[in-house]
Specification:
binds oxa(dethia)-CoA; globular; alpha/beta; 311 residues
Amino acid sequence: MATGIIGVGHYLPEDILTNKDLEKMVDTTDEWIRTRTGIETRHIAKNEESTFDLAYQAAINALAHANIEAEQLDMILVATVTADQSFPSLACQLQAKLGASQASAMDISAACSGFIYGVITAKQFIDGGVYKNILVIGADKLSKITDWTDRNTCVLFGDGAGAAIVSEVSEDKGILSFELGADGSGGNALHQEDNKIRMNGREVFKFAVRKMPESAEKVVEKAGFTKSDVDYLIPHQANVRIMEAARERLGLPKKKMAYSVNKYGNTSAASIPISLSEDVHEGKIKDGDLIVLVGFGGGLTWGAMTLRWGK
Ligand code: UT7
């Protein structure tokens, strides 16, 4: 047996904030945001809707898609930088609400790379034969730590959650290679200060256009494939210019790359699982496809994996 993903789900809050809305809030234009980032709209959670609420909905959807009950979960991992409290963890809160009585639970802090860190952590427990089903969630409500007066950051982010059930799959499917990395010396380029996101956009951009393509290429090679074997790429949805760098390095046509940054902005740890879930449910990812997931984020961190889709 191998370790893979047997179900996915996602959730986005209802309210939509457009570039036109942002023009009224800070000195920016729809044209600037679209051409520099690819973002047109983002979903923003209401005040009373917490990161927990987003994560819960995504979890319910993933459990239904995998056709398993919460009692069958052995572990819950939540990748987030916006948990409602530092403790108890969001994962423990979910364990209670879902009724996942057999599951251990913890949060993972790796910013936008968190979902990949979570899936690869889950893989170790399943490969080792310790656990069978692990719920991995990427959930963030960045709107609550966004400085809505800072045009350098407030145009970029959105709220949302995506989830996956990591489990045993047949030998020819599942996760084939991965890479996780960190460079703490670059931490100041993207950090939280006085409860707000602070970012040196140009620094993060330079790091990301180097790391995402490099890491994507590396995991394809590690799995013993060539770029032409790749069917689909899911990059962290931060900025279309960064995503394009990864797509071009793998030599893929545009339609073979997940693209939701235009609708949802950068949803941090949620961006990769939202795209994965959406594209699986829309039939863009099919049984047997070789897909590459790749992300980068605060820390600085990065992560990538190749995955043969299916059970
Ligand atoms: O999950 C990881 C999270 N972070 C990221 O992914 C961020 C990565 N970085 C980026 O995506 C890009 O660097 C940005 C989108 C943040 C900025 O794009 P850029 O092409 O790197 O622009 P820049 O930082 O070089 O700024 C160009 C100009 C500046 O004006 P001056 O100094 O040339 O006069 C900025 O002040 O654009 C200005 N600017 C804006 N103008 C209108 C910055 N933000 C805005 C804005 N509207 N919202």
